[in-house]
Amino acid sequence: MTAPATMRALRKTGPAPGAELEEVPVPDPLPGEVLIRIDAASICGTDLHIFEWNSWAAGRMSPPITFGHEMTGRVARLGQGVEHLEVGTRVSVETHLFDGTCTTCRAGRFHICENLRILGVDAPGGFAEFISVPAVNAWQVGAGVPPEVASIYEPFGNAVHTVFPGNDGGDVAGEAVAVVGCGPIGLFAVGICRASGARQVVAVEPNEFRAGLAKQMGADLVVDPRSADPVAAVLEATGGHGAGLVLEMSGNATAIDQATRMLARGGRLSFLGLPTQPVTVDLTDQVIFKEARLVGITGRELFRTWQLTSTFLETGMVDVQPVITHRFPLDRYAEAFEAAASGRSAKVILYP
Questions:
Q1: Which candidate, 153, 125, 97, 113, places its Cα nearest to that of 312?
Q2: What 3-state class would DSSP assign to 21?
Q3: Angle at the Cα of 90 (from 88 to 91), degrees rounded to 5?
Q4: What is the Cα–Cα distance from 203 to 65, expressed in whole angstroms?
Q5: Which of 71, 56, 64 has its CA nearest to residue 119?
Q6: Cα 114 to Cα 94: distance, rounded to the nearest angstrom
Q7: Distance between CA atoms of residues 278 and 299, nearest Å
Q8: Which of 49, 226, 241, 352 is the most buried (most CB within 10 A)?
């Protein structure tokens, strides 16, 4: 597989809203890297922040840079020393670039590396025709997986890690689960819990469009927190016991407090949503006296989570097609980001 000298890439060219589609050189893979020809890339909430240039992006990013970090493609060229992949191999890409030498990495927790860098934020990303990444970050995709599904292994892995964190795995089978916030990752989590044998799955989501998707992904009950008390709804659905597993995906301060209150005694509460300000919770009654287990979640465990992700997606245990709501060629990126921000979308896919 040959690569041209230049490629199109969607780039954040300066500290302002928007992006530019530019012609840039195709990178050469360094030793230990692979060059990947991108087949599909999906838009993440982080990408939307970058496109809109909110306060987080302004404080985190240093343009110019190609952004985008959820992608799939085929290996186009091997860097020196890469032996476990072949040209033409279909892969999805792990976003986190880890040094492998810090104390955390040496303990096997590569996803929380002390010197972590992120594709599309700290290094050139995947809204392009090609990307060069460390070969260890390229995860082989099974035959028959459509490109749009292969492009969402990374965010689907976030949901897998939230449901099955390695440091407190727990058991989902037979459990009552509440998913608070049904953006794409919350929707994936609904499907994962249903496929894993949860007794009940209650979704809490105010957006009518995404509430409908939660039902398609297998939620038994969807609660609109604007018109009903989600704590009361979960307690009623569980005979007053509460949910043994609560997945907090929203980052909303009120929802976080409610998540602690709908949690059963001895239950686990996984936090993936990112609050924008400090949050107050009732530690005494809702955490300590319940002996609740609180688990912070970031990214994916490398590479246990990826193996679970492959199992769910490549066997058909979870059908993610309802969550993939829009598809655009890369040159229609403005429409794609408009759809992503519309409130009537979930996963939006770009095809280079």
A1: 153
A2: strand
A3: 130
A4: 37
A5: 71
A6: 17
A7: 21
A8: 352
Report how far residue 11's alpha carbon sits from residue 172's, in angstroms, rounded to the nearest whole number: 41
The one-letter amino acid code at 240 reads G
Residues recognised as catalytic: 46, 49
pLDDT digits (tens, 9 = 90+) for 265-306: 999 999 999 998 999 999 999 999 999 999 999 999 999 999
CA angle 205, 206, 209 (to 5 degrees): 85
Contact 163, 114 (CB under 8 A): no
Residues 6+ apart with CB under 8 A from 222: 182, 202, 203, 204, 205, 211, 214, 215
Could you name the CATH architecture of 6-152+320-351?
A: Alpha-Beta Complex (3.90)
Residue 114 contacts residue 108 (beta carbons within 8 Å): no
User: pTM of this prediction?
Assistant: 0.96
pLDDT digits (tens, 9 = 90+) for 56-110: 999 999 999 999 999 999 999 999 999 999 999 999 999 999 999 999 999 999 9
118-175 pLDDT, tens digit each: 999 999 999 999 999 999 999 999 999 999 999 999 999 999 999 999 755 568 999 9
C-alpha distances out from residue 156 to 56, 91, 173, 190, 196, Å: 23, 15, 19, 11, 15
Domain ranges of the chain: 6-152+320-351, 159-296
Helix extents (H) in 166-238: 184-195, 208-216, 230-237
Dihedral of CA 142/145/148/154: which sign?
Answer: negative
**DSSP-derived secondary structure for 96-145:** EE--S-SHHHHTT-GGG-TT-EEBTTTB--SSBSEEEEEGGGEEEPPTT-
Encoded tokens for 295: 């688990």
Q: How far apart are CA 76 and CA 10, in angstroms?
A: 20
Q: Kindly report the CA angle at 320 between 315 and 325, in degrees rounded to 5?
A: 155
Please state, in angstroms and rounded to a whole number, the distance separating the CA atoms of residues 21 and 233: 47
| Inter-residue contact 198 to 177 (CB < 8 Å) | yes
- Class of the 159-296 domain? alpha beta
Sign of the four-CA dihedral 141, 146, 150, 153 = negative
Which token pair is 306? 């990826």
